[in-house]
Specification:
heterodimer; A: alpha/beta; Arc Repressor Mutant, subunit A; two-stranded antiparallel sheet; about 45% helix; B: alpha+beta; 6-stranded antiparallel sheet; about 50% strand
């Protein structure tokens, strides 16, 4: 089982991420946050991990469709909507879109890279500061 | 050539007009140093995309043999210049602001 985390993190601003990156580059101490997406505000977190999107992801995990077309059919949703959502899920790192060549229209197969999603909404400022090495 | 992952983060932000932008950044240190890489040792991939349409994006890469370059949307690579990692990051920020119309702070 592989877990992906949607995390609330007030330090997930572009400014602070940039500072962490430059610090890692100059100090040689890696700062790697794999398998997660962070947002500095709750509103964004709840919007990006919305129910309709997670339903698409859950269908990919469970039904393992062999194409976006098949996925759209299972979900009874418009193909272009499902394709765009799959691109977002790929951008989040939750799935991989594998292009398969063959006869007829080229297929794009959505492959789930995780099978569990966790929401992490730490409320303790001291704990969050420690997570950033402050 | 050996590479060590120094940094990786994926964060989402909301613009003042309600659009959401996801930024993914990773940075590798390459040893031994090689010409064509940033500061001869950094390989990077930074991308900012519109959550409502991931093809709307600013992508910066630095890898062999292309060196440091930029892609807007799904367009061709555009060579860009930065002599340090700090300069490269400042350029990425300015391209994001230019493309999405405002700075990403939250």
């Amino acid at each position: 089982m592989k877990t992906y985390t949607f995390r609330y993190d007030p330090g997930a601003t572009l400014d602070q991420a940039g500072q962490r990156m430059l610090k890692a580059a100059r100090g040689g101490k890696p700062s790697v946050r794999k398998d997660e997406m962070a947002c500095a505000d709750f509103k964004t977190l709840l919007k990006i991990a919305r129910e309709s999107r997670l339903e698409i992801f859950r269908t990919i995990v469970n039904k393992k469709p062999d194409s976006i077309h098949a996925l759209a059919k299972i979900l009874d949703k418009d193909h272009s909507y499902v394709f765009r959502e799959c691109q977002v899920l790929e951008g989040f790192g939750l799935i991989q879109l594998e292009k398969a060549s063959g006869e007829g229209r080229p297929k794009v197969r959505p492959i789930a890279l995780y099978d569990r999603i966790v929401f992490d909404m730490g409320m303790n400022d001291a704990e969050l500061a420690t997570a950033h090495g402050q | 050539m050996a590479g060590a992952l120094l940094f990786e983060e994926r964060n989402s932000h909301t613009l003042k007009d309600g659009r959401m932008v996801t930024v993914f950044m990773d940075l590798w240190s390459i040893d031994p140093p090689e010409p064509g890489l940033l500061e001869s040792r950094f390989k990077l991939s930074w991308i900012a995309f519109d959550e409502s349409d991931p093809s709307k994006r600013v992508l910066m890469d630095c890898h062999k043999p292309l060196g440091f370059h930029l892609h807007i949307d799904t367009g061709p690579q555009i060579p860009v210049t930065a002599s340090t990692l700090d300069e490269a990051y400042a350029l990425f920020r300015s391209k994001i602001a230019e493309y999405f119309g405002e700075e990403l702070e939250v």
